[in-house]
Specification:
The structure is a single chain. By secondary structure, the chain is α/β, with parallel strands linked by helices. The strands form 2 sheets. A 5-stranded parallel sheet has the order 3-2-4-8-9. The protein has a 4-stranded antiparallel sheet with strand order 5-1-6-7. The chain contains 15 helices and 9 strands. Helix 2 crosses helix 9 (225-241) and helix 4 packs parallel to helix 6 (149-161). The longest helix has 26 residues, at 29-54. The radius of gyration is 35 Å and the shape is elongated.
């Protein structure tokens, strides 16, 4: 028979006796609310402290991407910024030919303290026009290598947009800006955004321009870690390559490469400046044997480009700038070869005649000629077949203090030769 009263196990731990539970006090809504506020205030403060400790990191990423700006969206390209600022500081720069002249001009205009007396616009065929030849220290040569019609018009707009309208614009007019032939419309360097902005805001044309949303996308890119990495790699790469623009040290006339002078003009290396007449003649002959740069298949001046030229001149005048037309000559070997092929270059021969009549009709100043004989230039005044020296420009351009409206020359030898 089982023992109804088993013995207690002496090794079994004794349990505590539970006290009888007291009834809970009722919680009021106010107490609940205060408890909630206190709890989440503590959490918020804790998170804020942690975020504050981490905040310098995203701030640094934003600052670094904005400052390096590898795409030139906020500061302009690094190289071009250095050139523009050094140029404004009156320093000649080497290695400039590796940079983007359009960006240099934009940054130069933005950082000017006041508008200039005069600027020149056009292609590399105007880059020998210096402040000394222009007759004023308040001058900048905004000519661009390989400039086509959109480049030339955009270059003036850069000064307009920066609210630095020059008093005088020396507009070097190349014949190809009236041509629609493939040779004249390669558009290798055109900044289409800038040109479309000019057409839309400057001339009132109905074209597409950069929208506010597209501009916002540029700013949003600063928050991208990938964009930061690109900027970091860009900085390291360019720091190591040594291809940065350099302030010229020593004699500026003894450099082995092109030098961008403080007035925007270009000083070619000593090897080009010291070439003999025979060497220059051979260079010019070889050049025209290959092709007449930007003027091949130019048979007729385009009516739309003529109208656009007129709009552009009127636009500059409406802004308060006095417009001076400048025609820089070709080497005599080049001009003679072109004369011998009138049908091939019929459009070219129309341009100067038309420009002279245009200047006369609109009371503009016009100086120079595409024909070197008409302005008294010889082989000694050229670097090659296309680019006249400053000595040649001085023979027909009097400087901004002696400008006068164009009138046809009485001496027929001062007029360009036609086929």
């Amino acid at each position: 028979m089982k023992n109804p009263f088993p013995k207690k196990n002496p090794n079994k731990p004794k349990g505590r006796k539970r006290k009888p539970s007291l009834p809970k006090r009722p919680t009021t809504p106010i107490k609940k609310f205060l408890s909630f506020v206190i709890k989440w205030t503590g959490i918020t403060i804790n998170v804020a402290i942690k975020c504050a400790l981490l905040l310098p990191i995203p701030i640094f990423l934003l600052w670094y991407s904005y400052t390096v700006d590898r795409n030139g969206w906020f500061q302009g390209e690094q190289y071009e910024r250095e050139i523009a600022l050094a140029t404004l500081d009156g320093k000649p720069i080497s290695n400039f030919e590796k940079m983007e002249e359009r960006e240099i001009t934009k940054l130069y205009a933005q950082n000017l303290s006041q508008p200039l007396k005069a600027i020149s616009i056009g292609s590399s065929r105007v880059l020998q026009l210096t402040s000394s030849i222009a007759g004023t220290d308040s001058f900048f040569n905004a000519g661009m290598i390989g400039a086509e019609q959109p480049d030339v018009m955009s270059s003036y707009y850069l000064f307009d947009r920066a609210d630095k309208i020059p008093e005088i614009v020396i507009f070097e007019v190349d014949p190809w800006i009236f041509s629609t032939a493939p040779d004249a419309t390669t558009y290798r360097r055109v900044d289409w955004k800038m040109y479309n902005d000019f057409l839309y805001y400057g001339l009132g044309h109905d074209v597409e321009v950069t929208t506010e949303q597209e501009n916002m996308n540029f700013w949003l890119s600063l928050t991208s870690p990938a964009f930061f990495q690109e900027n970091l790699e860009y900085y390291i790469q360019n720091k190591e390559t040594g291809m940065r623009p350099q302030i010229v040290k020593g004699d500026v006339y003894q450099q082995s490469n092109d030098v961008k002078m403080p007035d925007g003009s270009v000083l070619y290396p000593d090897s080009m400046r010291s070439a003999t007449v025979e060497e220059v003649d051979n260079i010019a002959l070889n050049a025209i044997t290959n092709s007449f740069v930007n003027c091949e298949e130019f048979y007729q001046m385009d009516s739309n480009l003529i109208a656009l030229f007129d709009e552009f001149v009127s636009y500059m005048q409406a802004k308060g700038s006095q417009v001076v037309l400048l025609l820089t000559p070709y080497h005599s070997v080049v001009y003679q070869k072109v004369l011998e092929q009138p049908e091939r270059y019929s459009g070219f021969f129309q341009v100067e005649t038309w420009l002279r009549q245009y200047a006369l009709d609109h009371n503009l100043s016009l100086y120079g000629s595409y024909d070197p004989q008409a302005v008294g230039c010889t082989s000694e005044d050229f670097f090659d077949g296309w680019h006249v020296k400053g000595s040649g420009i001085s023979k027909f351009f009097p400087g901004v203090s002696s400008l006068a409206p164009y009138s046809p020359p009485q001496d027929s030898s001062a007029l360009h030769r036609l086929p």
